[in-house]
Specification:
By secondary structure, the protein is α/β, with parallel strands linked by helices. The chain has two domains: about 110 residues, 2-Layer Sandwich (Enolase-like, domain 1); about 240 residues, Alpha-Beta Barrel (TIM Barrel). Helices cover about 40% and strands about 20% of the residues. The strands form three sheets. Strands 4, 5, 6, 7, 8, 9, 10, 12 and 13 form a nine-stranded mixed beta sheet that branches. It has a four-stranded antiparallel beta sheet with strand order 3-2-1-15. A two-stranded antiparallel ribbon has the order 11-14. Helix 1 crosses helix 2, helix 5 runs parallel beside helix 6 and helix 7 runs parallel beside helix 8.
């Protein structure tokens, strides 16, 4: 049965943006635009996304993606993709609900749970404090994999403070022991030579995953690191351009591809990257650095794609670090024995908090508004 899009609503604050899409058949789906500057992204939704799809059939998600990007080809900036994510993820919610399946099941998966790694977002934390909270989280939630930060973000070979990288790697390994998997994220910190030097030190401590060692806008630098080390080098969270992704997989820039669903523009384009990577036997470990719906989207995809990596990123930062994460949706994420439980309710399987929606900035575009 055909269904046409009759309205698109945004509910936003500075950090979070939710999108509700309604059809002429009475169905509705919820999605999320990219976090941060979500109020700006909402303007893009209503000016550069909604006008092109209102009144059109919601049946072909891929076609709607192409319509928006073709109509906005003069403005191929990241905000268009951040906004497109809201539309795309709402459409997947509708289609899965229509089939009585979770999005994961609609994509062909049926995972009961998804292994996760506990992901620290902090760089100013001391090695001692980081190791202590990792140990506490291991005991409480059964995590067996942990990621922490090394170097200085976009640091030009500079550490956050002198000696921190070596100290934190050593401290975390000593505190957690050899039975856990360690991952590190450099966030574009190093030139190739320095990244390779740091990489050899990481290998000595059994670190298995070295994320974004070089500036992401220098993929050929990262390839030098990938070729030089025996550990997995990963990257791609910042990239949304398919030309960049094609170059990355064609030339094996990384061992592990890490697209971000919200930066990519939604599920549809993320699946394209996953398929592209699969042809080159590259696993995909999605980037999802906060506990908004991006982690939920990522879990559904990771539970379905054939080249899913070993684990899903799961932020360990609470409301003291991300206060805007509070009370957005329910049920909340459930971590047991180091795995995210997948209940497989229809669609995304959540309910948005009505109080959060009531306190947000609300705007709606109707079918009759279409130019």
């Amino acid at each position: 049965m055909n269904m046409n899009i009759i309205s698109i609503e945004t509910f936003t604050n500075e950090y979070m943006g939710l999108l509700r899409l309604r059809t002429d058949t009475g169905e509705e789906g919820w999605g999320q635009t990219c976090t941060y500057n979500a109020d700006i992204t909402a303007q893009v939704v209503h000016r550069q996304v909604a006008p092109h799809v209102l009144g059109l059939s919601a049946n072909d998600i891929g076609l709607l993606n192409r319509v928006v990007l073709e109509r906005e080809h003069k403005f191929p900036g990241t905000y268009v993709y951040r906004a497109l994510c809201g539309l795309d993820t709402a459409l997947w919610d509708i289609h899965a609900k229509r089939e009585g399946k979770s999005v994961c099941q609609l994509l062909g998966g049926n995972a009961i749970s998804i292994p996760v790694y506990a992901s620290s977002m902090q760089r100013n934390i001391s090695p001692e404090a980081e190791a202590e909270r990792f140990l506490a989280l291991k005991e409480e939630f059964g995590y067996s994999s942990f990621k922490f930060r090394v170097g200085k973000e976009c640091g030009n070979d500079i550490d956050q403070w002198p000696g921190r990288t070596e100290a934190i790697v050593k401290r975390v390994r000593e505190q957690l022991g050899d039975d856990v998997t360690l991952l590190v994220d450099a966030n574009s910190a190093y030139t190739p030579a320095k990244a390779i030097e740091v990489g050899h030190m990481l290998q000595d401590y059994g670190v298995s995953h070295f994320e974004e060692p070089c500036p992401y806008w220098q993929p050929d630098w990262t390839r030098q690191v990938t070729d030089a080390l025996d550990m997995d080098v990963s990257g791609g969270e910042q990239d949304h351009d398919m030309r960049i992704w094609q170059h990355m997989v064609n030339t094996k820039v990384v061992d592990i591809a890490q697209p971000d669903v919200c930066y990519m523009g939604g599920v549809t384009r993320t699946l394209e990257v996953a398929s592209m990577a699969q042809k080159y036997n590259i696993p995909v470990t999605l980037h999802c650095a906060n506990l908004s719906l991006v982690t939920l989207f990522s879990a559904h995809i990771m539970g379905a794609i054939p080249n899913a990596g070993k684990y899903l990123e799961f932020s360990i930062e609470g409301l003291d670090y991300y206060p805007w994460q509070a009370n957005i949706f329910k049920p909340n994420f459930d971590i047991q024995n180091g795995e995210l439980i997948m209940p497989h309710k229809p669609g995304w399987g959540i309910e948005l908090d009505p109080e959060w929606l009531a306190l947000s900035d609300h705007k709606v575009s109707y079918c009759g508004d279409r130019f």
